[in-house]
Amino acid sequence: MTNQIAAQNSATQSPREVAVRASHVTMDFGGVLAVNDASFELEKGRFLTILGPSGSGKTTLLRMIAGFQKQTAGEITINGKPVDAAPPHRRSIGMVFQKLALFPHMTAAENVAFPLKMRRFNPRQIAGRVDQFLDLVKLGGYGNRRINELSGGQQQRVAIARALVFEPDLLLLDEPLAALDVKLREEMQLEFRRIQHELGVTTINVTHDQREALVVSDNIIVMDGGRIQQQAEPVELYRAPENPFVAGFLGLSSFVEGTATADGNMQVGDLVVQGEPADDFAAGTKVLAAIRAEQIRLAGTREALGNCDMKLEGRVSDTIFEGERQMYVVEVGALSGATFRVYHHDPDSFGLFHVGDTVALGWNRRDLKIFSPAA
Ligand SMILES: Nc1ncnc2c1ncn2[C@@H]1O[C@H](COP(=O)(O)OP(=O)(O)OP(=O)(O)O)[C@@H](O)[C@H]1O
């Protein structure tokens, strides 16, 4: 039955149809610009995550999309219609929040049936539809359990079924996994992805968890200070951050300040550091370079590094055991004492280097991105 829904969805959806469009949306809370001139498009059937630190404006943007809050400037449309055209209960939006707001005195099945009753769904078809959606979230057979007889993860599944049972045009998720322990959170991230793929429902998820964003999304918007910093697919966002904020927020990056050279590299003291310019900047301007911890190679000597465009020597100032890998902090005197954080995961040599050791570190030119600091 779920496959039938997916088939219907894919038959009726042209892949390029825009489901949600925000144009120059601003929310000014009496001088606090919670969202500042945000514009984006989301195609039908895609999974978008709005990612950003606390206070970056994610929830405010989501609340405006849901129609709970009216923007002070700009326009938001869902399937071409302004979001405030209908009262919240008449809109075709399913929602799951961190507080699940399930009805504790009702059974799982009664909770899932609730939106159908509210929407005056044909009573003879309710039980079948509820079973179908409990199956979808792998709770077939749990329909008669009361909410307090279910685990946290199972309650989460009931909330998902309840949000989707009336086949909304849009599913909105506001940090629904934030309160779960890590294992369960990772399991539910994959579940969200599976269910979304199965139903093809257009979804917007809000989180500050970068791993979650990378795992579940087709498309990610990174926000900071109320502004959209970048919108891209996960791999592009990770590989080609457009500014230092995005480079620092996703993954673990180290930063070095310097001056742009005429050929697009960076000068620090007497040393020219090879990198890839991520912006247009004039020779002599101040720049900021970023490199990810897993893109730096570490060895006892420069020769042992093998082929690297850039090779430097440094001193280990800290080593941190992270289970599946070791993280080294290396200070490079030739770069005015800049520190680099480097992941190393050779299972045979976790204890390879110690604090105080001199080590060689190297990278390839394309992996060090050079930005204008003001970008
Ligand atoms: N009703 C309000 N009145 C005044 N300021 C508000 C209001 N709601 C949010 N803000 C402010 O707007 C900014 C963005 O808040 P928002 O809740 O959207 O951020 P967020 O990215 O979702 O953060 P978190 O991850 O902590 O939930 C914050 O500075 C917040 O204090």
Automatic annotation (TrEMBL):
Keyword annotations from UniProtKB, A to Z: ATP-binding, Nucleotide-binding, Transport
Record Pfam families: ABC_tran (PF00005), TOBE_2 (PF08402)
Record flagged with keyword Isomerase: no
Coiled coil, from the record: none
Domain ABC transporter residues, every copy: 20-250
Domain of life: Bacteria
InterPro entries listed in its UniProt record: AAA+_ATPase, ABC_SmlMolc_Importer, ABC_transporter-like_ATP-bd, ABC_transporter-like_CS, Mo/tungstate-bd_C_term_dom, P-loop_NTPase, Transp-assoc_OB_typ2
PROSITE patterns in the cross-refs: ABC_TRANSPORTER_1 (PS00211), ABC_TRANSPORTER_2 (PS50893)
SUPFAM superfamilies: MOP-like, P-loop containing nucleoside triphosphate hydrolases
PANTHER family: SPERMIDINE/PUTRESCINE IMPORT ATP-BINDING PROTEIN POTA, SPERMIDINE_PUTRESCINE IMPORT ATP-BINDING PROTEIN POTA
Protein's name according to its UniProt entry: Putative spermidine/putrescine transport system ATP-binding protein
Organism: Celeribacter persicus
